[in-house]
Amino acid sequence: MIVILTAIDLKDGKKTWTIDTGASDINELYSVGKDYILLFCQNGSGTMGADFNTNFILYVSLKDGTCTGYDFKYERSFKLPMH
């Protein structure tokens, strides 16, 4: 299972952007101001609890879907495309 984020304009009910996160789980979510969220993501078949494992983080703009991430395993930043 992959987590997909989609923003919907509540005035007209239309989709404004969608992002395929590549994550199997979102471990934590934090609001950063009113326009951004920070997601702590896990991919693959990890377990929670003592073996909790965040593989990458995503910084997502709620306005336009711009998404920048950082992968801890490969020690690199990346950008995800919007659909």
What percent of residues adopt helix (DSSP H or I)?
A: under 10%
Q: In sequence order, what are the helices and strands, one letter per element?
A: EEEEEEE
Low-confidence spans: pLDDT under 50, at least 5 residues? 47-51
What best-fitting shape do the alpha-carbon axes yield?
Answer: globular
If you compute it from the alpha carbons, what radius of gyration comes out, rounded to the nearest whole angstrom?
A: 13 Å
Distance between the termini: 18 Å
Structural class of the helices, strands and pairings? mainly beta
Adjacency order of strands in the biggest sheet: 3-4-5-6-7
Number of strands: 7
User: What's the helix count?
Assistant: 0
| Overall pLDDT confidence | 88
Strand fraction: over 45%
Quick one: biggest sheet?
5 strands, antiparallel
Description:
There is one protein chain. By secondary structure, this protein is mostly beta strands. The chain is built from no helices and seven strands. It has strands at residues 4-8, 15-20, 25-32, 36-42, 56-61, 67-71, 76-80. The chain has a five-stranded antiparallel sheet with strand order 3-4-5-6-7, with no helix packed on it. It has a two-stranded antiparallel ribbon with strand order 1-2. A hairpin with a 4-residue loop joins strand 6 and strand 7. Residues 47-51 have low confidence and may be disordered.
